[in-house]
Each structure stands twice: as C-alpha cells, then as structure tokens.
C-alpha cells in the first residue's frame, strides 16, 4: 500500500514528451522509421488516413494524433549499403547541396505507405535518373522525399483542425544529421526545434517523476528534465524552390498512390530543370 506503480506506454508518445512537446506541437520521432506525434486539444476531429487519434494517449488532457513513415533511417541505410559505404561517409558534403539540385524525386515507399494512404502494397519510386547520378544524390533526394512526405502528413493534420505551434525533430537521427533538420525546416517552411541532447528515455523519467510525486505535474517535469532545443530556421530561397518541388511530389504521391489524374509528360522535364538550376 502507498507504493505508486506506473504502467508502460508507447515509446514514441513518451519520446514526444521527452523532446519537450506540449499542446499544439508535432514531434517527428525520426529513427529507423518515423512516428509523428501531434499533441492536440480534446476537440480535434478524426483525421482521414491517420489511424491513431486517441484522447489521453500522450497526456490526460489532450488528444494524441499518431501517424508514421514505415521506413526512414532504414531507407538511408539501404542506400549507403548498396553504395558499399557507411552512412556517415555517404553524408559527407550533402550540406552543400542546393534544393532539388539532383533532379531526382524520391517517394519513400520502400516499406509501403503508413500515412496518409495506408497502403503497405506500395514500393519506392525514384524519378529523374541520368548517367551522372551517384549514391550521394539518391541519399539527398531521399531526405527531401522524407521531408515532403512529412509535409503531406502535417497538412492532413491541419486540414482537420490541428493548429501546429511547433515542429520538433526528436528520435535518434536528428541529433546526428543537421542536413535532414535543415531540409525539413525548408520543406515545411517552419522552424524545426531539435533537442540539444538525446531525448530518448527522458519521457519515461518525466512520467516516473510525476507518478512518484517527486515533481508536481508533467509540464513542470518537462521544464526540469527535457533537453533545451536548438532551432533551425527555414531559408527563404530554399522554401521557394521546395514549394515548386512539392507540387510535383504531391501530384506523383496522389497519382501513384490513389489514382488522381497525373500529367506524366511534364514531370521529367521539370525535374531536369531543377538539376540544371532552372
């Protein structure tokens, strides 16, 4: 009697708290796959294509909206493996790439689409290849594709009443990959908050501290335990380019994914124009 016994929760939900996420935030828990945790008010409506909209799943007074990418870091690792190099080596120099410069557009369906199409039967697509492309180009295009798929997911949340206050890149990858963080900021046209140290496991500490009475509430525990963020801001020129590229990405995503009309004849010339700087 008198001994508090907390129970477990999904890792990504508490990673969202450990990353400093509060109501109005979307935390992208980026690892081998990505789990998107939006912390929404109680009155949020169901979101088509997003299976998990659960009151109280993150904190008692909010509704958790959970979406995901079936593979993220696994895609990056696969590209590195096929090139015969490790991922840190392949990442070298990618910070010098300008938006869309590869002329490649990559849909990250290598392990199917979890959100918003919910289609495990899809496969990855890369358009725009020529004989000069290298593995580094595919990797940068894969990062851009992940960011654009993230934008589709965030847009779907907002269409259903989720007003996004902050975007937080949690999980293991953002600590080691500022190329990814900057591309996300540019594609989403939002500042991206990245915890200064790893948030993994911090959410469990936050909940345990409240459960045992050491700290009064979740918000106070986050202020004391969650790592402070550093912020990467979108670059206006990059935002403009990615808005154009996103139009093509979205058309291909919806065309191949759900049969929307698609002007196939215009896609490759438009991608080639990005490659040559047009």
From TrEMBL:
UniProt entry keywords in alphabetical sequence: Kinase, Transferase
Short name of one Pfam family: FGGY_C
InterPro entries from the UniProt entry: ATPase_NBD, FGGY_C
GO-annotated biological processes: pentose metabolic process
Transferase recorded as keyword: yes
Name of the molecule in the record: Ribulokinase
Transmembrane segments: none
Any single GO CC term annotated in Swiss-Prot or TrEMBL for this entry: cytoplasm
Domain Carbohydrate kinase FGGY C-terminal residue range list: 27-212
GO molecular function: D-ribulokinase activity
UniProt lineage: Bacteria, Pseudomonadati, Pseudomonadota, Alphaproteobacteria, Rhodospirillales
């Amino acid at each position: 009697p008198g001994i508090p016994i907390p129970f477990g929760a999904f890792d990504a939900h508490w990673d969202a708290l450990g990353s400093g996420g509060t109501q109005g935030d979307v935390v992208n828990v980026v690892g081998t796959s990505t789990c998107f945790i939006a912390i929404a008010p109680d009155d949020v409506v169901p979101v088509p294509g997003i299976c998990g909209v659960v009151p109280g799943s993150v904190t008692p007074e909010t509704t958790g909206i959970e979406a995901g990418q079936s593979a993220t870091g696994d895609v990056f690792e696969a590209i590195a493996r096929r090139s015969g190099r490790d991922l840190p080596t392949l990442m070298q120099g990618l910070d010098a790439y300008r938006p869309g410069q590869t002329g490649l557009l990559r849909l990250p369906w290598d392990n199917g689409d979890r959100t918003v199409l919910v289609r495990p039967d899809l496969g990855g697509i890369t358009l725009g290849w020529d004989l000069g492309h290298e593995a580094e180009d595919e990797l940068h295009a894969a990062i851009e594709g992940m960011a654009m798929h993230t934008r589709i997911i965030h847009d779907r949340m907002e269409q259903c009443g989720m007003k996004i206050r902050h975007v937080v890149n949690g999980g293991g990858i953002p600590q080691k990959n500022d190329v990814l963080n900057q591309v996300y900021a540019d594609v989403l046209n939002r500042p991206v908050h990245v915890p200064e140290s790893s948030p993994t496991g911090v959410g469990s500490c936050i909940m345990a501290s409240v459960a045992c009475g050491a700290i009064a509430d979740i918000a106070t525990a986050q202020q004391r335990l969650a790592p402070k963020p550093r912020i990467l801001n979108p670059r206006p020129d990059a935002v403009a380019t990615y808005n154009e590229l996103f139009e093509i990405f979205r058309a291909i995503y919806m065309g191949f994914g759900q049969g929307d009309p698609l002007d196939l004849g215009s896609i490759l010339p438009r991608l080639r124009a990005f490659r040559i700087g047009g």
